[in-house]
Design brief:
Rossmann fold, six-stranded antiparallel β-sheet, about 20% strand, flat, Succinyl-CoA_synth-like, CoA-binding protein, ATP-binding
Length: about 700
C-alpha cells in the first residue's frame, strides 16, 4: 500500500498563499484556476496585504481564515517559503504544493533547506509536492491548482516540465485524449514520482500514466511501481544519450550508458519508452482503452500497393511481423475481393473500394477473425469519400460525380461503423492510417476507440505499443536479494572463489608470485596451461596473456618473458580450456546510482567493445530472461551453430548468467563485476576470466 495522497487530490478545503491580482505572478494564475469550482470545496485566497483578489476578500494570513485548511498552495518569494510552510502546518494542512523555487536546484545550501523542510512536513504527517513545481490538477475532483486547464480524460500526466505538459495537452486534443490529473513533479523533496505512479495506479479514473522525467530519484522503485501498476505507463525522458559519468574501469563500464539503463528498466517493467512528445501522443492514443494484441502478427489492408508496401515496411521497422497469410485465409479473402486483388499480405483491395466501400469493412472483419492475425493496419484512401462530401477537400469534391460521391460517402460511413463493430467483437487492435484523418468516417472510427493517424509510421508505432511480441521475453523487475557479507578481496582470485561458491564454473587455477610457486602449480593440474598477468584491464592488449602452453618448460619461459616486460606483482596459472566449437560471451553487472545493479550480456572476448553486440536488463536476471537476451543478440546465430558448427548450450550459459547477476546484486560494495569471456560450448559453460571494481 502506497502513501495516502487523498488530501492532495481531493482536499476538503484549499488555500492559495500568494494569491495576486497581478497577471504576471503565478499566484494569480493558480488562484484564478482554483476559483473555477468554488462550490466543490472552500477556496481561500491569502495575500499578506489583504484587500480584494480576483473579486474575493483575501486573508492576510492562514491564521486569519479561522478554520483548518487541508491543502495549501504556496507561491511566495523564496525567503518567505519556510515561514509559509510553518503557517500551513499550524493551520492543520495535510498537503502542501510548493510553487516557490530556489532550493535543491540552486546547489548544496538550497538542498539543505529543502531537506529540512521535507523532514518537517513528514514529521507533521503531511505531504509536500515540490518545491519548484507548477501545481497540480485533478479533473475527477474538480481540483484546479495549475496555471492552465487540462481537458478531462483518462491520462494521469506526471511531468517535470510545465511547457512539455502543455505541448502534450495540445497534441492529445485532436485524438480526443484528456487527463484525469496533472502533477508538476518539481524537486520531489517529499512526494516522489514513485508515490505518484503508485497513486495513479490505484486511481479508478486513470487508464494510462504519462511521465516526463529527468530525475527518477529511485529509478528501480519507479520500474517496480510501473511494472505492478496494472495500466500502461508511457515514459519520455531526456539525457538518455549521454554516457554515464563514472570512469570506465571495465568493458561493462565502457559499454553501459544512461540510455541503455533506462531502456533496460523500461523493457523489464513493461514501460513504453518514447523519444518525443509526438511519439508519446501516438502511444497514448493507441493505449486509450484499446485491446492489446498477441505476438504482433500484423495484417496490412490497403486500397493501393504503394500505401501497403510503405505500411508493411513501417510495421516491420516497429518490431512487428507481416507474415504471408495461409492458404485457407487467402482463399477466404479471394471470395470477398475481385480477381486483381492481392490476398497474401499486404491485402490490396486494388480499387474495389471505389465500387463498393463495404469491401473495406468486409476485408477488415475477415482479417480480424483469422487466428493467424493479431492486429490489422488499414492504410490508404479510406476517409476520402466522406471527406469529399464533408467539406474537407477530398478529391471527389470537384469530380463532378454528383450522386456517386454522396453514395460512396454514405457507404464509407456505414463501413466505419461496421469496422468498429468487428474490432469490438474480435477484441484485436485495429489501427488506421488515412490520407484524410479528419474525415467524418475517420472521426467515427476514432470515437469508437480506433486510433487514426495521418502517417504510416505513427500507425505502426501505435500497433507496436498495443502488441506484446514473444521476443520481449518475461516481464517484471526481480527483487534484489538480501545483502551478502561484503567481499574484502576484490582481486582476481578472491572474486573467482566467491563466484565458484555461487556455482559459476572456472578452470583450475593458482595465483603465483615467483617461479617456485609457478612450478608447484604446474604439478597440481595437467597442461596445456594459460598464464595471465594480474591487475591489468586489457591483459591481451598489453601482452599479459599467454595461451596453450603445452608443458612446464613452456610455462616457465612464458613467465620469464612476460615478467621481464610487465613486472606484474602476481600471475595466474590456469588449465587451458577446450575452445573447440565454443562461443565467447561477456557477462557484466554495473551498479547504476538510480536503477541499482544492471546486467549486460553479449558477445565477449577481445572484440567486445569493437562489436558492441550486447543487451541489458535490471539485475538479478532469471535464466529464462537471460536466454531471451542471448537470443536477441545480433550474433545469436553463432549460438545456434553456423557453417557446420554445432549449437552451444544456451541453457547452461543462461543458468550461469542468473548466478552471476544474483551474486552481483547481493554485493552493493562492488560497483562492477565482469566475466569476460564466458566460454559456452555444446557441453556447458565455463568462466575464463573475472574482474571486480569496488564501489
Amino acid at each position: 500500500m502506497g502513501r495516502d495522497l487523498s488530501a492532495l487530490f481531493d482536499p476538503k478545503s484549499v488555500a492559495v498563499v500568494g494569491a495576486s491580482n497581478d497577471p504576471a505572478k503565478y499566484g494569480h494564475a493558480v488562484a484564478a484556476q482554483a476559483l473555477r469550482a468554488p462550490e466543490r470545496r472552500p477556496v481561500h485566497l491569502v495575500n499578506r496585504r489583504g484587500g480584494t483578489v480576483l473579486g474575493r476578500t483575501a486573508a492576510t494570513s492562514l491564521a486569519e481564515i479561522g478554520e483548518p485548511v487541508e491543502l495549501v498552495v504556496i507561491s511566495v518569494p523564496g525567503s518567505g517559503f519556510e515561514a509559509a510552510v510553518d503557517d500551513a502546518l499550524a493551520c492543520g494542512a495535510r498537503a502542501i504544493v510548493g510553487i516557490t523555487a530556489g532550493f535543491a536546484e540552486t546547489g548544496p545550501p538550497g538542498l539543505a533547506r529543502q531537506q529540512a523542510l521535507a523532514a518537517k512536513v513528514r514529521a507533521a504527517g503531511a505531504v509536500l509536492v515540490g518545491p519548484n513545481c507548477l501545481g497540480i490538477a485533478d479533473n475527477t475532483t474538480q481540483l484546479y491548482l495549475a496555471s492552465d486547464r487540462f481537458a478531462p480524460g483518462g491520462i494521469a500526466l506526471l511531468s517535470q516540465s510545465g511547457n512539455l505538459a502543455l505541448e502534450l495537452q495540445l497534441r492529445c486534443a485532436p485524438h480526443g485524449l484528456g487527463f484525469s490529473r496533472f502533477v508538476s513533479l518539481g524537486n520531489q523533496a517529499d512526494v516522489t514520482l514513485v508515490d505518484l505512479v503508485e497513486d495513479a495506479a490505484r486511481h479508478d479514473a486513470t487508464r494510462a500514466i504519462a511521465v516526463y522525467a529527468e530525475d527518477f530519484g529511485d529509478g528501480r522503485a519507479f520500474a517496480e511501481a510501473a511494472a505492478t501498476a496494472g495500466k500502461p505507463v508511457v515514459l519520455l525522458t531526456a539525457g538518455r544519450g549521454t554516457a554515464s559519468a563514472r570512469s570506465a574501469q571495465s568493458h561493462t563500464g565502457a559499454l553501459t550508458t544512461s540510455a541503455d539503463v533506462v531502456a533496460a528498466a523500461c523493457r523489464d517493467a513493461g514501460v513504453e519508452l518514447v523519444a518525443t512528445p509526438h511519439e508519446m501522443t501516438v502511444v497514448l492514443a493507441a493505449l486509450n482503452g484499446t485491446p492489446r494484441a498477441g505476438r504482433g502478427r500484423t495484417a496490412v489492408c490497403t486500397d493501393g500497393g504503394g500505401h501497403g508496401a510503405i505500411a508493411a515496411d513501417a510495421a516491420e521497422s516497429a518490431g512487428l511481423t507481416v507474415p504471408e497469410l495461409g492458404a485457407a485465409a487467402q482463399e477466404k479473402l479471394s471470395t470477398l475481393l475481385w480477381e486483381q486483388s492481392s490476398v497474401r499480405n499486404p491485402v490490396d483491395l486494388a480499387g474495389m473500394g471505389e465500387q463498393n466501400p463495404h469491401s473495406y469493412g468486409d476485408t477488415v472483419g475477415a482479417l480480424l477473425a483469422l487466428d493467424e492475425v493479431d492486429a490489422v493496419l488499414l492504410t490508404g484512401y479510406f476517409g476520402g469519400y466522406s471527406a469529399a462530401t464533408g467539406g474537407l477537400g477530398g478529391p471527389l469534391a470537384d469530380s463532378g460525380t454528383a450522386g456517386g460521391g454522396s453514395a460512396l460517402a454514405a457507404g464509407e460511413l456505414e463501413t466505419a461503423h461496421q469496422m468498429a463493430g468487428h474490432a469490438a467483437r474480435h477484441a484485436k487492435p485495429l489501427v488506421v492510417q488515412s490520407m484524410f484523418p479528419d474525415a467524418p468516417s475517420c472521426r467515427t472510427l476514432a470515437e469508437a476507440g480506433i486510433p487514426v493517424f495521418s502517417a504510416s509510421e505513427d500507425a505502426a508505432r501505435a500497433l507496436a505499443a498495443m502488441s506484446e511480441p514473444e521476443a520481449d521475453g518475461p516481464r517484471g523487475v526481480h527483487p534484489l536479494p538480501p545483502a551478502a557479507p561484503p567481499l574484502h578481496d576484490t582481486g582476481y582470485h578472491g572474486l573467482r572463489t566467491l563466484l565458484t561458491a555461487a556455482g559459476v564454473p572456472f578452470p583450475a587455477a593458482r595465483e603465483i608470485t615467483d617461479e617456485a610457486q609457478l612450478l608447484a602449480a604446474a604439478e597440481e593440474f595437467d597442461g596445456p596451461y594459460v598464464l595471465k598477468a594480474l591487475h591489468l584491464l586489457h591483459k591481451s592488449d598489453a601482452g599479459g596473456v599467454a595461451l596453450n602452453l603445452p608443458d612446464k618448460d613452456a610455462l616457465l619461459a612464458a613467465h620469464r618473458e612476460m615478467h621481464a616486460r610487465l613486472d606484474a606483482a602476481s600471475y595466474s596459472v590456469e588449465a587451458m580450456a577446450d575452445l573447440t566449437d565454443g562461443v565467447e560471451l561477456i557477462v557484466g553487472v554495473n551498479r547504476d546510482p538510480r536503477f541499482g545493479p544492471v546486467a549486460m550480456v553479449g558477445l565477449g572476448g577481445v572484440l567486445t567493445e569493437a562489436l558492441h553486440d550486447v543487451a541489458f536488463a535490471l539485475a538479478p536476471v532469471s535464466a529464462a530472461r537471460a536466454e531471451q537476451l542471448l537470443e536477441g543478440l545480433g550474433t545469436a546465430a553463432l549460438l545456434k551453430g553456423v557453417r557446420g558448427r554445432p549449437p552451444v548450450d544456451v541453457a547452461a550459459a543462461a543458468a550461469v548468467i542468473e548466478r552471476i547477476t544474483t551474486l552481483a546484486a547481493a554485493h552493493p560494495e562492488i560497483a562492477e563485476i565482469e566475466i569476460n569471456p564466458l566460454l559456452v560450448r555444446p557441453d556447458g559453460a565455463l568462466a575464463l576470466d573475472a574482474r571486480a571494481v569496488p564501489a
